[in-house]
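Hi team,

Filling in the usual template for the complex we talked about on Friday. All components are listed, including any nucleic acid strands or ligand strings, so the model treats them as one assembly.

SUBMITTER: L.P.
PURPOSE: interface mapping
COMPONENTS: four
RESIDUES: 1148
SEQUENCES:
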Amino acid sequence: MSFSDSRAILLLSCPDRVGLVSRISHFIYERGGNILDLDEHVDTVEKTFFIRVSWSTAHFSIPASELHDAFSPLAREFGANWHISLGDCRMRVAMFVSKYDHCLQDLLWRHSTGEFAVDIPLIVSNHPDLEPLAARYGIPFHVFPLTAETRHEVERQELELLQLHDIDTVVLARYMQILSPQFVECYPAKVINIHHSFLPAFVGSSPYRQAAERGVKIIGATSHYVTEDLDQGPIIEQDIVRITHKDTLDDLIRKGRDLERLVLARALRLHSEQRILVNGKKTVVFD
Amino acid sequence: MSFSDSRAILLLSCPDRVGLVSRISHFIYERGGNILDLDEHVDTVEKTFFIRVSWSTAHFSIPASELHDAFSPLAREFGANWHISLGDCRMRVAMFVSKYDHCLQDLLWRHSTGEFAVDIPLIVSNHPDLEPLAARYGIPFHVFPLTAETRHEVERQELELLQLHDIDTVVLARYMQILSPQFVECYPAKVINIHHSFLPAFVGSSPYRQAAERGVKIIGATSHYVTEDLDQGPIIEQDIVRITHKDTLDDLIRKGRDLERLVLARALRLHSEQRILVNGKKTVVFD
Amino acid sequence: MSFSDSRAILLLSCPDRVGLVSRISHFIYERGGNILDLDEHVDTVEKTFFIRVSWSTAHFSIPASELHDAFSPLAREFGANWHISLGDCRMRVAMFVSKYDHCLQDLLWRHSTGEFAVDIPLIVSNHPDLEPLAARYGIPFHVFPLTAETRHEVERQELELLQLHDIDTVVLARYMQILSPQFVECYPAKVINIHHSFLPAFVGSSPYRQAAERGVKIIGATSHYVTEDLDQGPIIEQDIVRITHKDTLDDLIRKGRDLERLVLARALRLHSEQRILVNGKKTVVFD
Amino acid sequence: MSFSDSRAILLLSCPDRVGLVSRISHFIYERGGNILDLDEHVDTVEKTFFIRVSWSTAHFSIPASELHDAFSPLAREFGANWHISLGDCRMRVAMFVSKYDHCLQDLLWRHSTGEFAVDIPLIVSNHPDLEPLAARYGIPFHVFPLTAETRHEVERQELELLQLHDIDTVVLARYMQILSPQFVECYPAKVINIHHSFLPAFVGSSPYRQAAERGVKIIGATSHYVTEDLDQGPIIEQDIVRITHKDTLDDLIRKGRDLERLVLARALRLHSEQRILVNGKKTVVFD
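RESULT (copied from the run log):
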């Protein structure tokens, strides 16, 4: 799935009705667009329609800049939540980290290989530890030490920084703080977390310890959008690895690190390619 | 993915061009069809377009019986390979078996639960061993003993039997004979085999023995359409299971049985729901 | 791992101390036994030692019938929980079922192929539905209808029946009733259940519905020993399968059936080959 | 499985006979060693015995330095291939690379976290590209440009360098050259390669291209010991990932990179912890 500049992607959900695919594809066709990928899904219980279409704008009859306005009447008629993104407009992502480096170093390395079509203008942390890692990739690193008293003020400053840099998406790459509802509200379905368990098992702190105590034979990692409710947001991606009675807590942590890296990287990739729609407490992922 | 009677499915491939999705979805929309599922794929190397659309015919403006003729002009214009199937028209499947029962008993049990929307009018075997199993599910069992001399004549009789029963698809559920090119030609992309290895590794006979000798750490099973070339047909589905140095050849056979059953069942399900298009030596599987 | 008659298996756990492997293997060696398999594990947190040894008794210097008494002094010295089983003495297993047939039919078919070195003298159910399936394999089927009032008396009768048939192990093959603590107490680490979720996620009823509502991307099945606490017993085996937003509740149930069958079959196999030791709320599985 | 200094590990294989476990464990016991882990395996076809025992030498009655001599008589009697390693003696590993960085950067990062109990005194390459990566971790990087004419002489120099640094093990982290039999001979079962396919499928060059052309539904990676025969050495570890018709060759390469990193890291870990014994063309892996 390479990602080229002369491409547009429509991501849309609306109440289901007859003719949606036909009318949307006709909109593209009559303007000379060539559909490259189309995925649709109907939630037959909720009667909701979901679609992702990408098309080549190489021979499109209207400029990309007018696309949004051109599609608006149709979207309004459908009562849709929708977003059109253009291939030459990269998502802007801020990473939030604490002290663990495994997710950050993996994401930055992947980014350096071109795996993610995003810009990473800045990294935020409540600790200075990972500054050298950020420096190696030339990314500005902002330290905001946190105490219970300063949390409110710090989050205000962080939001200001994010807005200053036009940040679209926040990735919590093992950020060990809980964001306030006020913060989360500013980035709905835009804050991606990695939780080191197979949710909904082992919510909260020390999931590997909980897993070791329960004696499970498989551990997991879960990437999800952050909502007000801790570890309850819509799940984007999960994966697992087998363990045995021989594995100590340290082994779980080590094996889990590999999972966390993979699952968070896949989630960011899916998100950055506009492949995810939220459906209530769940996601539709057009993979 | 339940499968109801008032549904039509179009499976189509053709050279790629602008407007295919739009024109196909418009064909359905203008006749009052409500699209339930649409999957499309473009092979950008071969410039080939693949689509599967299913729609509700509950409020369709033309009778299902006229659908084929109504769509023909469009298909001709596109230069398409295509097939429309109707929800109330079940695929007719013949099973071919030899002496191993694990695949057959699993498929028949699944069929009894309604997992496959097919009819199984008959079972063919070169041995009488599995007749009691067929009898338990009330399916006629035809024994055709085979020798090198009679092969040609036997296949002729088998084909006659299949044609007599309007068979669409043949499932080789561990059938230990190689079909002649003449036979295969009569059922292009309609004969489904299960090979007990992770193809293309361990082609031919005794793949578990080959795997044990090579010392692999994972074994697999592969379901594919049968072509003239042994074990070379388009792959439909594969799966694997881990093994260790402790596993003997008997263990491989036992673990492999579970894989074979699962992989063949998934392949038949995908095929019976019209989810597979052949693309040269490969498949497009709209899962 | 074939299982032959002239074999003995020792399964033992005790407080860890120096020399345990040496003294146990010496016990076997000096009587002419040839060790075929030896697995040991030390829980370094709880300081507990676990071992499974199997050896050939073909040239053993004492009769198998005297083995238990011969080993007793050593076991006493170690303060061990232990059990010696002989290859020609098959475990006796009772199946408990309700209306779902997928686990029972799979276990009985596997048993017919020789996968489990056990006898199945009887099947117990609170419904008559699966009697024909039991009959097909020639296994006596006992129906005990249950009401809230009769539960206590019914369990008493069931226990009597199990004792009458020298039952070692009870397999709950989707038995939809909760056994009383009094019943469970009679078969400690001898009642094997299959729960259709990835425990500890989705405890209790309708786990597939819970999974569908939570929007997980992976579902699981868990086999565990039954204890007083519902779905909290030591886990024997787990496995998982991927799902997507396309999968309806019916798809989860269908995909889950395959998992339940596999996981329960593996658990019974491990148990019947004396490969499992309970370690508090967890298991040591010598696979 | 943490790895501490006051530990010894015996890795041994020999023709099977009665009493091996007893006599080996007795050797340890009578010198005051406490067995921490013991794994054994008997290849019943080849009649070969394999064992790995690790024990605490904290209260051992002889100095570690005398252990080798003390055990020699027993080993001679058994006709054994054997090796005793001591916890405070770290394996010395040289990495060989070409231009791809994904395996090297992953191994070096893992090494920096302490995942491997090895020293990495040097990195060898036929290209200068990865020198900055090596520099970041402070590891000397030696460039040996290669031509068909210089190959023989270059390998001689490389071997000299390896011997100078007491290298035990060579890891080919996507080294794109084929080592000569003379080189391989110097490090029998000591050169670890990662091949980017599920061996024995897709031997040789461009395995991802071969996989894309064959239309497999699963790709893999294989780590193995290098022998004279290309891609035919004893397999240490394999893993796989699912692909679909949507995945282009670039997607296979991207997904495969994650596999290669994981599989090679696991292989090095197993090797460095003395968990692997070669059994003809296969391995016994005590995981």
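MY TAKE: Chain B has two domains: 7-86, 91-285. The longest strand of chain B covers residues 34-43.

Thanks, L.
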